[in-house]
Design brief:
The protein is 43% helix and 19% strand. It contains nine helices and nine strands. With 270 residues, it is an alpha+beta fold. The N and C termini lie far apart (91 Å).
């Protein structure tokens, strides 16, 4: 009788909606904790991910009702996790899309073909969407990385519209918060930057197309990075970061509390 009562008291199987709600609450809590630890606001994450604030907030709060279809939720979680330094693909795979039965029936069941075909088509549709989204995301990331690491030749017409201050930066090669590209004073010399933290700030440094550092540095920290061709520095608190190029006079990257990204390229040797 005891054995029978134990068997009858097995916990009920959760529905697919309950599984998604529980997993979303767990994932949202982890993303919220990581964002708070890095000192990022939702508005700053919006700038990094291009995801509307209401969707980011719904993910952190585990609110399924304010989110789109599960397949799109998984994509939003991946972008959110990538922005906070996680492996977005692995992180998002924890969110269930297709309901997994506890005791699946054998494949060779006696069900009519008309009942099996819709399920197979649904699974195939999900696989096609996942592959398409992953492929497009990888293509866009590769294009952006190639564009940021490939030096472009000067175009007078485009420079006059897109970068009106380019001529000033060539005459005075020093850190300017409102310029995206700076040149070193000596031809063919590598680029070296030094940063000193006036206030705790999140920083990402990309050297020659590879991420050299990404994280939050405390106040008073001093770090140095070098690159042969190009360095890109991004921070969420431009006024709290003093940056010097090739041991020149350090200057603030921009205004306090503002997101700023600066690219410093070595002047080609002729």
């Amino acid at each position: 009788m005891k054995w029978l009562s134990r068997k009858d008291n097995q916990p009920p199987t959760l529905s697919v909606e309950q599984q998604r709600a529980e997993k979303l609450a767990e994932i949202g809590g982890q993303l919220w904790a990581s964002r708070q630890e890095q000192g990022l606001s939702l508005e700053e994450v919006v700038l990094l991910t291009r995801i509307p604030k209401r969707l980011l907030q719904a993910i952190e709060e585990g609110n399924l009702e304010d989110l789109p279809e599960p397949i799109y939720i998984q994509g939003l979680i991946r972008q959110f996790a990538d922005a906070l330094g996680f492996n977005g693909v692995e992180f998002a795979s924890n969110f269930p899309i297709v309901y997994q039965q506890a005791n699946p029936k054998p494949a060779l069941s006696a069900k009519p073909i008309s009942q099996l075909r819709p399920l197979h088509l649904y699974l195939l549709y999900i696989v096609v969407i996942i592959c398409s989204v992953s492929g497009l995301s990888q293509l866009l990331n590769n294009s952006a990385l190639q564009a940021s690491t490939t030096p472009t030749r000067p175009n007078p017409e485009k420079e006059s519209l897109a970068q009106p201050q380019q001529t000033q930066s060539k005459q005075a090669p020093e850190v300017n918060p409102y310029s995206n590209t700076l040149l070193t004073t000596k031809d063919g010399q590598p680029v070296q930057i030094g940063v000193t933290l006036k206030a705790s700030s999140w920083i990402r440094v990309v050297a020659d197309g590879k991420t050299a550092f990404e994280g939050t540095l405390p106040e008073g920290t001093h770090r140095t990075w070098k690159a042969q061709e190009q360095l890109t520095v991004k921070t969420n608190n431009a006024g709290g970061v003093l940056m010097s190029v090739n041991q020149q006079q350090p200057k603030e990257m921009g205004e306090p509390g503002k997101v700023e990204e600066i690219q410093i390229a070595a002047k080609p040797k002729f």
